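User: Can you help me understand a structure? I only have the sequence.
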Amino acid sequence: MKKILIPFVGLFILILLTPFILAKLMNSNIDKKISELQKQGYQIKEVKKDIGYLSTKREFLVTINDKLKKRYHIDNIESDVVLTFKNLPVTTANFDVEYKKVKLFNQTILNGYKFNLKTKDLKHFKLVGDDYKKDGLNVIGLHGNIIIDKFITKDINVKNISYKDNLKIDNLKLNITLKSYNPIAFEGEYNLTKFDFKDKNIEIKAKNAGEKFKNAFLKEYKFSDRFNAEKFGVVIDKDKYAVAKWNGDLIVTYDKNLTKFNINTNFDFEQSEYKNKILGGAEFNITSKIKRPVNIFADVKIKVDKDLFESVTSEMNPDVVNKYFKNYKTHFIFNNGEMKPYEN
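Assistant: Let's start by predicting it. Here is the structure, written out as tokens:
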């Protein structure tokens, strides 16, 4: 009888010890993650620790050092993080995060913003943000996923972002993967339904717009970008300048000291609106080289539909138009303030 009871007693004791063992393992993994973040420049102070039999609760104050402030161009960031989880075999860790203060360009842009992260493996996180309405800034319907493995991938969706009467963004979808901090390497894309920005007498608008971008380090830094918009335009003093079905790409290579840039961009649009008149499209190709502080060179090619060409050039000096354009096309060189037609 005793031989039969011994395994059952051992199993019962193991069951009783399971919460203690799992709490120790989980907290050990969390301590390792904290150590890794501290090495990256995050300053993490534990302000409360309560490890019970069935549950754990830990609270942290998180700030960043000067190196990270410079990297992210942030003046100050401070947040409270509350971690809770059950000391059970299948558990979900909850991170309740509150940005107490985020300061950018000497302006507080977030104050008291809260969101929640849920994870079962400390690698895959589900993100849900509270609606934020304060000081004219509204962030509504933020949610997404974050994967922290070999790389860090963030998949974020926001129903609406607005700031006073200056900024409105609807249905923003952002996916970005950070592959390296130093040298910095990332890739991602975003899409949005509507964008509207106002400043005094200028308004910038876009509809169904987005970009795919990538920054990598080979022998030099290389940034590539493909952009598109169903409609994109500017309103200046009630005059409208807009394009429809705008597509293009941009490639920039540069050195780590930002002293030399090679830039190439190609874009076209099928239709335009110029001073409230609907007109044709155009194609652009621009290749340029920039050396700091003042050396600027650009090779520019433009092809314009007839009605758009006539509307724009009617306000220009005819001698300049005849010098630079032929059959609604132009090809010129710009070199340190001097512009001249390209000659084969």
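Now, to help you interpret it: Helices lie at 2-40, 66-72, 306-313, 318-324. The longest strand covers residues 202-217. Let me know which part you'd like to focus on.
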